[in-house]
């Protein structure tokens, strides 16, 4: 045992009172092996129970061993390290499991038909999500067209025009408040707005776009504001010194300098709203046909398509579930792709901040 | 700020020469006016939008609150809304119980334990969780997590279901599908995890270097250093991160609507098949079938949700802004 070996060393040795380097790994293996053996004796061995009980046994044993050899303070330090590392591994589980499941079940229907057919007149097998993909692109595109200018100019106002005015303080505060609006409430807002204007029960892609804009504007404002603040003041001053008016300074100096960051922020905020389901459920609704007119009639979108395919399957159920998973995989691919593009732009064109 | 200085000097009235006056009123200044108008206009527009959200929600909620109970699709409003309000708070609380310790642990792992070269990449991995659409989380919860957790639920009900206090939570019969509020809360916990982790990580990384080094120089172990320097510095940040996560958990719709097998009940049982639904989940499930005043009732529950999340978020921002005042520790 390591206890006897370390205590038999002369006390002047540098490694005195320390556990050998690979004790923890050895202990982990031993703990899991013992747990597996004991649980097998009771007939309760399963991968989950072995890992959970084994990890607990490892923590207890390691604490006892380290406490005896290294002292209680080092033992606590070790515990903190193992627990924190363990938490990280726990968090990886849902991510890996989710992505694995989606890929495994989604690949079944990721075929040409899925991307070229709508659900019009489809009862069982076959069919596709082309109407939902178009709907998602149209709704998100309109939401972007509404939110990006508003968000961009608000950020310009906050950074360039009113540093600490009362209006700016109010805008900042309410942008923060807006970030916290539950997505379903944004959907209800758009629904009520359109009920007022066009009569109750109106579903349209444009209403969905309004709902998404409410969610998208604050993220655009925040990220653009952050980027504009990174632009060094010397650039602005140099421009003023040359007699350039303020608006041209902003348009020709400040915005181009921050362009990469702004594009990244916009792409990431699009990625955030493109997967929103709840607001589109109450505004854009669902249809089984392709509808490219955002101003009339319900418009299917990918998240809502996934939801309805899974929640209200027909008979037989399997084709509906398969379409739901394929839709989910498509959605994940779009969102992760947008995230990757955003980070790539940020990484490639990032201004040197001197840090 | 030098930008405001520049503006102030150009607009000072004491430059009386004709050249400057003409310059000031030239067309170039007109461009400035337009640009400033557009900018402050869109800023104001945001305030208008938020006011519109509040007005429309309140305006359409009033019929549901004032009409007779017989005329309402779902009966008297408050007795209809109360179980959902309870379910909202209860599910979010459970989610926070799971998410907060794990999120803080992960944030500490990334900021102070992981090898420096890997730290940023590991942060991105956790951020990936935030990129997954909520409807996919719902699919995963119903398909993978619920069946996986069911054996554990059976075990919990068998061992703790009869005990005096724990019995309130773990009493049987266990749901056959595993689609209980505990599963829904676990899915919610996974969804709020990246938010809390991201903010806490930022705050931990801002801990003054000198505080950490002073602690280590006095012979503290890494954990003691974290308890002495990092956590006290980061506490307000953690609190507001948790509040923001709580705001997200309160308003999350799809995970609840898909995972939970809902009922309109008020109890603390975690494992049975009758679970208190949340406001957001109920709106998503009931909205397609609602008509007439029923829609107004659902909008009124949405208003209740809006007020709850607003209160939580405002508290979070307030705590965070207070922190700025005395974060000049370095």
From TrEMBL, chain B:
The keyword Transmembrane applies. Residues 1-15 have a biased composition (Polar residues). Belongs to the binding-protein-dependent transport system permease family. CysTW subfamily. One of its GO terms (molecular function) is phosphate transmembrane transporter activity. Keywords: Cell membrane, Membrane, Phosphate transport, Transmembrane, Transmembrane helix, Transport. It is found in: Cell membrane. This is Phosphate transport system permease protein. The chain crosses the membrane at residues 34-60, 80-110, 122-140, 182-205, 225-246, 291-314. It is a multi-pass membrane protein. It comes from Tessaracoccus lapidicaptus. The keyword Lipid metabolism does not apply. GO terms for biological process: phosphate ion transport. SUPFAM superfamilies: MetI-like. Pfam families: BPD_transp_1. Residues 1-22 are annotated as: Disordered. Part of the binding-protein-dependent transport system for phosphate; probably responsible for the translocation of the substrate across the membrane. Coiled coil: none annotated. GO terms for cellular component: plasma membrane.
């Amino acid at each position: 045992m390591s206890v006897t070996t370390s205590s038999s060393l002369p006390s002047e040795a540098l490694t005195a009172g320390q556990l050998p380097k690979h004790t923890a790994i050895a202990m982990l293996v031993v703990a899991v092996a013992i747990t597996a053996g004991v649980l097998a004796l009771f007939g309760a061995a399963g991968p989950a129970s072995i890992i959970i009980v084994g990890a607990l046994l490892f923590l207890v044993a390691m604490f006892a061993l380290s406490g005896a050899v290294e002292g209680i303070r080092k033992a606590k330090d070790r515990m903190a390290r193992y627990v924190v590392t363990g938490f990280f591994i726990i968090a990886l589980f849902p991510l890996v499991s989710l992505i694995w499941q989606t890929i495994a079940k989604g690949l079944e229907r990721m075929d040409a038909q899925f991307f070229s057919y709508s659900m019009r007149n489809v009862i069982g097998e076959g069919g596709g999500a082309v109407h939902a993909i178009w709907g998602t692109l149209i709704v998100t595109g309109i939401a972007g067209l509404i939110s990006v200018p508003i968000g961009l100019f608000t950020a310009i106002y906050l950074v360039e025009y009113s540093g600490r005015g009362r209006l700016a303080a109010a805008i900042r505060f309410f942008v923060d408040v807006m970030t916290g609006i539950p997505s379903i409430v944004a959907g209800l807002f758009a629904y009520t707005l359109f009920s007022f204007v066009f009569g109750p029960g109106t579903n349209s892609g444009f209403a969905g776009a309004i709902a998404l804009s409410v969610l998208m504007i604050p993220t655009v404002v925040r990220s653009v504001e952050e980027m504009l603040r990174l632009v060094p003041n010397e650039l602005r001053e140099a421009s003023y010194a040359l007699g350039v008016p303020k608006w041209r300074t902003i348009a020709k100096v400040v915005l181009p300098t921050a362009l990469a960051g702004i594009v990244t922020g916009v792409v990431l905020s699009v990625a955030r709203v493109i997967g929103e389901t709840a607001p589109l459920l109450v505004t854009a609704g669902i249809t089984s046909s392709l509808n490219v007119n955002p101003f009339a009639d319900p418009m299917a979108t990918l998240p809502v398509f996934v939801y309805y395919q899974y929640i209200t399957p027909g008979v037989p159920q399997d084709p509906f579930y398969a379409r739901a998973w394929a839709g989910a995989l498509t959605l994940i691919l779009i969102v992760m792709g947008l995230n990757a593009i955003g980070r790539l732009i940020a990484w490639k064109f990032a201004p040197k901040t001197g840090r | 700020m030098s930008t405001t200085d520049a503006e102030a000097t150009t607009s000072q009235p004491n430059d009386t020469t004709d050249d400057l006056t003409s310059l000031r009123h030239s067309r170039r200044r007109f461009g400035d006016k337009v640009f400033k108008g557009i900018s402050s206009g869109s800023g104001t527009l945001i305030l208008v939008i938020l006011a519109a959200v509040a007005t429309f929600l309140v305006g359409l909620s009033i019929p549901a609150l004032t009409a007779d109970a017989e005329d309402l699709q779902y009966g008297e409003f408050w007795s209809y809304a109360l179980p959902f309000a309870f379910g909202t708070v209860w599910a979010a609380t459970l989610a926070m119980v799971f998410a907060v310790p794990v999120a803080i642990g992960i944030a500490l792992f990334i900021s102070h334990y992981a090898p420096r070269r890997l730290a940023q990449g590991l942060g991105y991995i956790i951020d990936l969780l935030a990129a997954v659409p909520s409807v996919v989380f719902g699919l995963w919860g119903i398909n993978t997590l619920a069946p996986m957790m069911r054996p554990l639920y059976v075990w919990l009900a068998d061992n703790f279901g009869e005990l005096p206090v724990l019995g309130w939570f773990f009493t049987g019969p266990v749901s056959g599908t595993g689609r209980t509020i505990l599963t829904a809360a676990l899915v919610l916990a996974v969804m709020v995890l990246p938010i809390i982790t991201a903010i806490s990580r930022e705050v931990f990384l801002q801990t003054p270097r000198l505080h950490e080094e002073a602690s280590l120089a006095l012979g503290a172990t890494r954990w003691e250093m974290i308890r002495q320097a990092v956590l006290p510095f980061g506490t307000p940040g953690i609190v507001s991160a948790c509040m923001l996560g709580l705001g997200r958990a309160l308003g999350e719709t799809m995970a609840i609507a898909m995972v939970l097998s809902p009922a309109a009940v008020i109890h603390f049982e975690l494992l049975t098949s009758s679970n208190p639904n949340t406001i957001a989940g109920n709106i998503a499930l009931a909205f397609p079938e609602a008509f007439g005043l029923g829609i107004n009732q659902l909008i009124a529950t949405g208003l209740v949700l809006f007020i709850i999340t607003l209160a939580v978020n405002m508290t979070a921002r307030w705590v965070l802004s207070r922190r700025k005042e005395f974060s000049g520790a370095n």
